[in-house]
Amino acid sequence: MEEKGILIVVSGFSGSGKGTIMKELLKKYENYALSISATTRNPRVGEENGREYFFKSVEEFEKMIAKDELIEYAKYVDNYYGTPREYVEEQMKAGKDVILEIEIQGALKVREKFPDALLLFVTPPSAQELKKRLVNRGTETMDVIEFRMNRAKEEALGMDQYDYLIINDDLQECVEEVHRIIQGEHRRSFRNYAFIEQMKQELKGE
User: Fold this and answer.
1) Bridging pattern class, strands 32-34 and 70-76
2) pTM (2 decimals)?
């Protein structure tokens, strides 16, 4: 029986390490596909259309909104970002588990359209550790770090909307934990109605 993939939505504070966890997961296991977002921002150096993002004009993006071709979308700093439905559904049909890394607001919109989606929230072990990681990146000013910490306060209010909390203390352990959760999710009875029905029918014939 061909098993359909699961849609996994991953959110987390900036600096929680969620991007690194996703990269490691994709490197280590073949069954995952990272959802590619569409955006109206210009490509940065080294970015390719269809790899990092699907780059769209504002007009193209607004057509996608009108045709309901996006699972969710949002506007950040004058640019649209969104998740194309077609790409996600194709990957899931092919049996891939699709990972979608997005903000909390987007995650809750995805749950409305895909009630079976699995929602994971990545967090460091403490707020102190979060700040330390942001500072150690060495790429941002203290103003930006303060902004991200304030943002984290708001995001923390939505943590209980997620199915699982992933506490990122040790990277490799964390990657394994995420993999185990997703594999266990495939065995949830509500994802296996067809098999359950088949089993019932076969047992009737015994």
Assistant:
1) unpaired
2) 0.86
